[in-house]
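Please check this.
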Amino acid sequence: MSLVLAAYAILGVRVKGEGEYSGLALRLLHPDRVQSCIWVIFVWALARYCQRLYELGADTKRDVIGAVDAEDRRRPAYEV
């Protein structure tokens, strides 16, 4: 929903009051801003991807360290 509001505010997207067979007819009040909006969406998606990748790595690291610690507690230190 926030992308729709951003398109409405920044690009001046307005939905025409007529129906078409192929879908909605849109009119841009500021067509020169389309490229910068696409870049903003791309950078946001890239930042979100990096954030999720970092979270996945941190979760995996925590799980592996937990499993190793559990194995270390299960076996006495003198057994090899």
Summary: Residues 2-74 form one domain. The chain has one domain: 2-74. Residues 17-21 have pLDDT under 50 and may be disordered. The chain is about 65% helix and 10% strand.
